[in-house]
Amino acid sequence: MSNTSDHERVLILGGGDGLALREVLKYPYVKHVDLVDIDPLVIGLAKTNLKLITQNNCSLLDERVNIHSEDAKKFILRELQPYKVIIIYFPDPVDPVISSIYTIELFSQTAKILSKQGVLVCQSNSPEDTPTVFWSIGKTINMAGLNTLEYNVIVPSFGLWGFHLASHFKLPRIIPSISVQHQALTSDMRICLLFLR
After folding, report:
1. Angular region, 80: left φ>0, alpha ψ -120 to 50, beta rest
2. For the segment 106-159, what is each residue's pLDDT rounded down to a tens digit?
3. 11: number of CA atoms within 13 Å, CB side?
4. Sign of the dihedral through C-alpha 179, 180, 182, 184
5. Model's pTM, two decimal places?
């Protein structure tokens, strides 16, 4: 989010638990968020379960949020206004069904609805435990025509976790400091760009 100058419109693909959404809504300039998750049960729990509501800070009930309980692959085929920020928060590609989400076709269609100045981020598994998966996701995003910048952070519940930033322009090898309150990120964001291969 801090990588974009204007992030009024945000798209989250996956993330029905509302946790990524909670972080997005911390930014005061966010005016509209479309959250697309195929599982209505997860969305329902995230809206009503006291423990989940406590964790997601009632994010799914925010008036800026439009929830779409449908397949992300179908949603992105709609005629949509461009988004300045797109967050892809799908489950890990551990089987053929979920792996079929992480395709050139999906990333190509997503690129069409990403504004020319926008930034996409995709959770990409662990570069430490599943390096082939991590680097393959980055290459797939590149093949869809976007420039990528990989980074990794320690996620308390998962360990070292990898992500890819992507955009229509060449991303600088700089991750800006985060302008909102957060818990899990280091104060020196340069560390996120270091990888042991």
Report:
1. beta
2. 999 999 999 999 999 999 999 999 999 999 999 999 999 999 999 888 877 788
3. 24
4. negative
5. 0.88
